[in-house]
DNA sequence: CAATAACAAGTAAACGATTACAATAATTAT
DNA sequence: ATAATTATTGTAATCGTTTACTTGTTATTG
């Protein structure tokens, strides 16, 4: 592979001129620009990124640390992030921390080693609790998870609001003993549980929330337990796509039909929620917007390290489907007038 | 951040010794090793990767180019690849080529710029047709797609065999007019169609295959068309998870029940295939093994550039479920005796 | 027309590691 | 005890860029 010296020699100019042309800098005449470009083409020259990064001290690389790319929510988000990044000639290093604080720490160290320009992070509960941007040698934008008092750039769903609306929808459709399965290991799960509890309280109902790991298997087990309760819940709210999946499996297993035996609703508008019969009522998350907003925030922070901290809060969209269909009119009517 | 010089000075040794200790090379006494380690700790030193890569001319980075990470098959594979890679201190650059040859070419150029140690590639049809490892400045391992005569390292499913078994299963369960929806843009789709056609031929049945883009929307449209045919197929075989999803949507839309109105079977054992009722018969792909095998092949190729070309062929596992349940005994008995 | 500004192009010093080679010290062999 | 060998350590060149600074030209201005 040709290097900058050979190109310079071939074009009859100095290496500085070649560098300037490659970087698109001003201060180079059209004539030399053309000669350089010709030489570049003739020699099939491409600047060496390692050398460039060493000298310029910038990598144009960002880290994306999520819990697990197999979680459809993160799959979508990462795709959005990568699309924007590559369009702007940035590289993305994707890492799966598996909600494991040690792994998360290891990946953050790796980001330091790579001298990344910035990181988009979906933090574990432990890290989020004491998160301060100043503790990191690079800009960080949080996604999906953020507490009310977190002083950091972040892009999140309004989880409390979304869960509130989802629970309120169930209540208004006549359900009373609504159980909630929420993710124990993330701030998001807690906030959704909070929104659910608030809705229950607003309608004078007793909440019954059960924490579960955000995996299909754990959710299935947790749902099984909830279904053993006496009296059995008449509706179930799942705080994420994976938990909804596990919960639905538990219902199938117990041969319970929705909405006849109990209603079902959850988060994340995944294709399969429209395939089961009846289709499942969900809160759709704007994953694409979320990913794009995150990388844009990051870019702005990189450009202006001292700008004020920003938080982008996105609204989830309630998709009403058959799984939460209105209950027998007798009870429903009663509630609606009581409101 | 401290650099190697400062560490050397702090430890009272030369930079060479520090470098040797960091690289874990032999030829350094235990005494100096300890002094260096102490200095490293004291100064919180981490070697600069850009400098190391520039000088050593190796990046310990691999590229992973797939069509779309949102395709669950690739989501799983990439997760497996990343797990193995990070364990060995390698970096992964993930790229989505969207079955677009131009994008694919752009990403391969990027791999060259990054001077990657190797690439794991799921090639477009166009590239695969004239694929020669020697055309690339880095080792390449193909995944998911590979022709019989491709002279390159590859890890693939035995697609023809898997599709044959899936089709044979339908036939043996009494179905006759079996339609096949296969991915038009990938070698995999074609091979699965081939296996399907072979099975149909073996049983003296007329194949009816329809090509579709491997997206949910396109598959739904294609399935609609197939369902319009007279006489209507009595079974449908979908050549990938996404196509199966779109096909299932089309069935729901047309209010057709499986297996009563027609049987259904496909590829990829995704969680939702067990959630619909009845559950769907599928070929499960060993995505984890596939990812691991790919990165291991790549490592061996990097270590021994001249070793013989290898192909790893994995077997899909048939998961029989309700969607392909045996048809009315009259016809079935007839066929089984005829075998 | 001289003085000054504006612009183009070149020179050479970084950036922070690795590594070939030389030099020295410590062992072992004779 | 000396030579030969081996194990450590240090010196300095090198990887391929970017960029501050210098020099040389050309255009502008009073």
Fold and architecture overview:
- 2 copies of one chain form a homodimer.
- By secondary structure, chain A is an alpha/beta fold.
- In chain A, about 45% of the residues lie in helices and about 15% in strands.
- Chain A has helices at about 5-10, 15-25, 30-45, 50-55, 70-85, 100-115, 125-130, 160-170, 185-200, 215-230, 240-255, 285-305, 330-339; strands spanning about 60-65, 90-95, 120, 140-145, 155, 180-185, 210, 235-240, 265, 280-285, 310-315, 315-320.
- Chain A has a 6-stranded parallel sheet with strand order 2-1-3-4-5-11, sandwiched between helices. In chain A, strands 7-6-8-9-10-12 form a 6-stranded mixed sheet, sandwiched between helices.
- In chain A, helix 5 crosses helix 12 and helix 10 crosses helix 11 (about 240-255).
- The longest helix of chain A has 17 residues, at about 285-305.
- The termini of chain A are far apart.
- Mean pLDDT of chain A is about 95; it is low at about 330-339.
- At the A-B interface, helix 4, helix 5, strand 2, helix 6 and helix 11 of A face helix 4, helix 5, strand 2, helix 6 and helix 11 of B.
- The structure holds a DNA duplex (30 and 30 nucleotides).
